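Sample entry (168 residues):
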Amino acid sequence: MKNISIISLLLIFCAASVGAAPKSSSRVGGGVRYHTAQDTVVAAPFDNDVSYGLLYEYHEGETFWQLGVNYATSMGSNDVDSVITPEVNLVFADKLWRGGVGVLSSYIKDEVGSDWTDLYYQLILGLEIPVGKMSLEVLAYYVFDDFNSIKEFNFNEIEVGAWLMYAF
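Predicted structure, serialized as tokens:
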């Protein structure tokens, strides 16, 4: 029993002494995103729904491209059966902080049929907590349909997401 305690302490010490992962050229991960009801966006059918997603990041210095897809099913109070939302984001990183802009379009399937929405956009702001080659990202998203509608900013429309990423 004493050996297990010593080994446990040694493992904790080793894990604590490992610094953040070196700059990697790529990362992959998965996560969850909470979508709020959108008054300013006609294209997105979300109304306090959750989606699950996959991300790939290609890093070049402090700037990186993020390619992702989110999937939501059994949409709350509307007739939507499922939504698949691919996205492309350009993100700028400064130590723990992240900020960027992205372009999205949703493939919506409902009782009548299915179709793609028009393009819409998102602003991204958040932080990353690195642990070795893994990291946890907690991000806030503000979704809007065109850049003129940013002046109609509403704090109630901010969405949140959490991603577990692996660097390679």
